[in-house]
Every structure is written in C-alpha cells, then in structure tokens.
Amino acid sequence: MPAQLDSVYHIARRFVLDKWGGTEAVVYNYCSQMMKNGISNHIYTTDIFCDKKEEDLDGVKVHRFSYIFPWLFLSREAKEKLKLKGGSPLSLPMFFRLLLGKRPSVIHTHVQHRLGGIARTVAKFKKIPYVVSLHGNYLTLPKSEATKMMSPFEGKLEWGKAFGWLLGSRKTVSGADAVICVDRNEYLKLKELYPKNKIVYFPNGVELDKFANKTADAFRNKFGIADDEKYILCLSRIDFQKNQRLLVKSFAKYSQTHPNYKLVIAGPITVEDYHEEILQDIQNYDLEDKVIIIPGFEPQDTMIAEAYAGADFFVLPSQHEPFGIVILEAWAAGTPVIASRLPGIQAFSHDQQDILHFTANDQEDLLEKMCQLDDEKLKSQLKTQASIEVKKYSWQALVQNLQNLYCELIEKKGDVK
Known about the structure:
Layout: E1 7-11, H1 22-36, E2 40-46, E3 54-57, E4 60-65, H2 76-84, H3 92-100, E5 106-109, H4 113-126, E6 130-134, H5 143-150, H6 161-167, E7 178-181, H7 184-193, E8 199-201, H8 208-211, H9 217-223, E9 230-235, H10 244-257, E10 261-266, H11 272-284, E11 291-294, H12 303-310, E12 313-316, H13 325-333, E13 337-340, H14 343-346, E14 356-358, H15 363-372, H16 376-389, H17 395-413
Parallel strand pairs: 1-2, 1-5, 2-4, 5-6, 6-7, 7-8, 9-10, 9-12, 10-11, 12-13, 13-14
Antiparallel strand pairs: 3-4
Helix pairs in contact: 1-17, 3-4, 9-12, 10-11, 10-15
Pfam families: Glyco_transf_4, Glycos_transf_1
Domain Glycosyl transferase family: 217-385
InterPro entries: Glyco_trans_1, Glyco_trans_4-like_N, Glycosyltransferase_grp1
C-alpha cells in the first residue's frame, strides 16, 4: 500500500514577490505543481520585507512570522543588509505554530541554520520525515563572499547560539531523512561527507508553456527599445555573485562594433552597494543611453517571458552558480545563452551545442563569445539543441519525482495508511 501524502510544509527564509529569486521560484513551483495533484502545500517563512501575515498565491498558502537577528549591538544598516542576504534569523512564533499546529505528512526546509533547526525539531517531535534542499553554496561558497556576508557581525555578540544548540541547527543537514542538491558538484561532495545518508541530485525546472512562443512588443515599448535595435538580456539578482559588472565592461567594448545593441540588466537588488558600482561603471563607460536597469519583475509578470523572447541572446556571467534556472527559462523562450564555465552550469549544459561557456571572470573571453553570436548559423544551432534539452526539465516530471521521494520517506517512518 502506498504511503499517504496529504500535505507538505515548506520552510523558507523569506517569500515575497518583489524580492523574488531562484529559491522562491523553486518552492513556488513545487507547491503549485503538487497542488494540481491534490496535495496541500503551505509555506512557513519570516515577514522579512512583507508584513502580510497570511497570503494566498494561486492557492499556495503563505504564513509569515515575526523574527529577530539574535546578535547584540547590530546597527539598523546592518539589519537591512541582512534582510537582503544572510543573517540566520530566528522565529519563535513560527516554531510554536509548527510545533502546536496540525501534523503534515512531510516538512521540507529550504534553509539551514536556526530556521532549519526549527524544521528538524518539529519533524522529530511529530515523528514525520523532513527533507533539506540545498540551493547552492552550502559547501561551495567562495571564501571572499562568505567574508562579505559575515561583515555585519564583526564585533557583535551572538546570543542566539543557545537557541541554535537547542534546535540542533548544526545537525539540520546531517540528520535529515533526505538532502536534495541542485548543484551536482555539491551533491558529489555531500555523498563523500555523509556516505550513509540519502543524498539526492535534483535539478531545477522550468514552466515550458510560460516562456514559449512569446513576443516582445509590449516590453520594447515600455522600456524604449526601438524595433530596429537589438538587446542583450541579463536577468538575475543584482549582486556580486551574479557579476553584472563584468558584463557591463565587456559590453562597453562590444558596443563599439555593435552600435545598434542595448544591454538590459533586470532583477531584484540584493546588494545595494554593488548596484551603485554598476551605475558608476555605466557612467564611466558613457553607456547611459545603452544600458537599461530594471530592478526586478514580480514572478507572475508576463514581461519576464517577453524580455527573454525579444533578446538577441542571454548572458549569465556569475562568479559561482549552483544551477542557473534563468538558463532554462532562456532556452524555453528560444533565446541563445552565454554563461560562465562553472560546475553547476556544466552539469546540465553542453558547450558549443546548446550554450556558449566562457571562462568565469574573464572579460575578454566573454567578449569573444558575444562576438561569436554574429554567426546566425551558430545561433540557430544553439537554439535548436537547447529546445530539445530543456524538455528534460519540465516541472511536472520533476515534481512527480519529488512526490515519490516523499512517499518513500513516509513509508520508511512507518506512516502508511
């Protein structure tokens, strides 16, 4: 008899439309696809950037709770930076709601640290399985970026360590019933680190119908891109990981030989200082009339698909990347892609076949790949192969695999009805 999978509670650090990122997209698609299969899904998160405590997103129930950053002497500026990235918040209201509330079939946490410890503790108390998704950077975050993320805590006293110890935060990953990795490199490292644990490589997906067969007329009109102008698109969070400054510098040279091109950089700003550096680069290279910055779309905005559809090609210049959902979105829209040569991207894409890889952080190599796309035959080849490859990543098929994993874990716990 198959295990009864009725409801799943997802734990996320934050979940708000105007600060949408890859993790939020994954969680939302998990929920919306499973709901089509009759499985109730709830998202438990903090009220970072949104004071709406309860929200219904197309049937997906979102529950937000107050939180704190448990350090003494944090400045207001430091707290604002931590809201955008990092911070390991603590939410006791979330903990007690989960502990005293209904018993779901599975808890699936998309965050570690204290919130992950809450998921672990509640799952053990209710005797249900819990799953941890690692959305990249668990073992592979560059030291320089980790240092930047920890800078707000310099000289501060972390009194929240006691709660982390009580919740078993450090055991969130090692004690999980299953760990899901979207980064194949991280998956292989975890398999070595925890050989007895269930570690699963589970790539991200894309809504094929959302991006296929779109036109860009409304997008061009809204942002002042003429019909006889072409544009390059970069859609991702605006921060140092995504490395948009490298693209601006390469584009400065590219535009000298391609004067009818514009560059569109779109995405939520998660590091304001980095955004300011991009603006300064644009001014220094005299590109004010060539570069358009759009500070984010809401995920349901139809102009996201239009932006992809109208782009001559798409560039993802990240310094590190666990997967790269935006590559799948560009493929689904029929747009050629150039991306950094990184393990997470190489795990699902094939250089010179469905994508052009360039050496990460190499401005000249990126420029060379951009110029290669002057070759219309190469463009057509990339688009054709990508259209075949992207069909492997439909959310419908991926979520069915996830449901199968949940059922396997429920059976293992003995919760068979």
